[in-house]
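Can anyone check this?
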Amino acid sequence: DKKYTDYYKLFYIKEKENKGGGYRKGDKYTVCFNPSMNDEGPVHELLHALELSHTFDGYSPNTLFTYKKSDTDNIMDYVDGDFQKTTNHTNKSLYHWQWQIINPKIR
């Protein structure tokens, strides 16, 4: 059935996975693991599917600016090196240049 071909698929599996909180496979397929993942985790992984990279990676063509890791409230940053940790600090923002990347991909 090709009805959902143009949709993004997000699978949330409440099981511990040793490689991290989630991953993206292909353009529109995202899997999130870990029962302790906070509210930002699935959004972070979905934004990877929309071709956003971490704000600290410094080498992706879609990272127009590079910031120090764990130093922003951007949802594509990590909190204390692990965005899944539950802390008082939440990552909830996107920068204007990130919106410019993802807006054409949203229907």
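Reply from J.R.: I decoded it. The chain has a mean pLDDT of 76.
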